[in-house]
């Protein structure tokens, strides 16, 4: 019988982005694309390094250190030992947060006439 630990809620909300990056491992560097980003980590498509390895992510002249948490054939998830708080990658995250669609506004609900249909027929 196996037991699995309960999942812990993430500290930061993940935001969908589309950012081209270069990932430096110990022996090589590969091009990748960040598709999911938060202050604490990222999902990188097109690049794959072994789990628990360390790497550098280069974006916009900035170098971000990361640890690979999981890895598949063509993508991986990384955790940043130091949370993003400044620099081009953080700016891209903040820009993407501002571009996230929100729920439709409900300002016209109070202005609707009471009745049947759009014209308020009774």
From TrEMBL:
<protein>
    <recommendedName>
        <fullName>PilZ domain-containing protein</fullName>
    </recommendedName>
</protein>
<dbReference type="Pfam" id="PF07238">
    <property type="entry name" value="PilZ"/>
</dbReference>
<dbReference type="GO" id="GO:0035438">
    <property type="term" value="F:cyclic-di-GMP binding"/>
</dbReference>
<feature type="domain" description="PilZ">
    <location>
        <begin position="10"/>
        <end position="85"/>
    </location>
</feature>
<dbReference type="InterPro" id="IPR009875">
    <property type="entry name" value="PilZ_domain"/>
</dbReference>
């Amino acid at each position: 019988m196996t037991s699995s630990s309960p999942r812990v809620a993430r500290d930061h909300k993940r935001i969908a982005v589309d950012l081209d990056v270069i990932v430096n491992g110990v022996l090589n560097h590969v091009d990748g694309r960040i598709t999911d980003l938060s202050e604490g980590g990222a999902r990188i498509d097109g690049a794959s390094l072994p789990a628990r390895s360390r790497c550098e992510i280069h974006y916009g002249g900035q170098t971000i250190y990361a640890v690979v948490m999981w890895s598949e054939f063509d993508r991986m998830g990384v955790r940043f030992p130091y949370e993003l708080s400044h620099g081009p990658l953080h700016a891209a995250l903040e820009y993407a947060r501002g571009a996230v669609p929100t729920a439709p506004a409900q300002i016209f609900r109070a202005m609707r006439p009471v009745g049947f249909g759009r014209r308020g027929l009774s």
